[in-house]
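Can't paste images in this forum, so I'm doing it all in text. The chain is below; anyone willing to post the predicted structure tokens underneath?
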Amino acid sequence: MDLRHRIPDFFVNRRNTLIQIIFTTIFAYAFILIYRPFNSRSWFDINTGKFAFGVGIVVVLGMLVVIISRVIMSQIRKVRTITIAGYAIMIGIEVLAMTGFYMMIQKVFLKDTRFWFEVYYTAILNATLILLIPYLISLLYFAWYDKKQKLDSLLIEKHTVPESRFIHFDDENGDTKLSIQLNDLLYIEASENYVTIHYLDHTQHGRLLLRNSMKRMEEQLTGFPVVRCHRSYMVNLNRIRLVKKTKAGMIVELSATVPVRLPVSETYKTNFTETLRS
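Text version of the structure:
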């Protein structure tokens, strides 16, 4: 597995992140009540109900660490791609931050008399269990659900005759600015807050500048054979004449009136080649 590959969007989108945080909070609460890590049975000399309430407060405060981490991650996603390695590092930071949080509770508030190293070892072991178990479960579920949705879409597409093969391009306000036949689309180019639609207008190379993001373009073109090959480019697979590897990297050549060459970056190469072969 290439750790430089982009993390799938369904792992880090807002909906799934919220589900993951809620699931992790519930898991952590049940984990502390049942497993009693960190010697939590000695935290409070109170009855079970009050103990459960106290644990709930501790868990919510602990989950604030995760929420802050995910807010930071969402801001990073706006300016750069989150790789598998980057995602793993963020989770590692969450575990270490959670460890520090529980160590502070154990040593400062609960007056644990053990050596710091012993408390740290116990804390990092249990913080890892509290976070990584629900993370692994939720990520497996997200991956399964994404595959299921794609399979359902393929089955629906297979049994549905499309009314037309027109592609409609909307701006950021949802207004349709261009509608063309699929085979007339060449590629889409991103530039800051704008995208340029490159297409064939009879025998001419047509261009249309739209105020929109590449991410929204990907969402709008779901179901069409238009794939991201670079941070700045999406290409119509039906227009690819050849794909070849050069010293500068992989490139694609399009079938058009004027020769068009587009780069394939390392970030998108795996997904691009897999889609091309399917």
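The CA atoms of residues 200 and 245 lie 26 Å apart. The chain has two domains: 9-157, 166-277.
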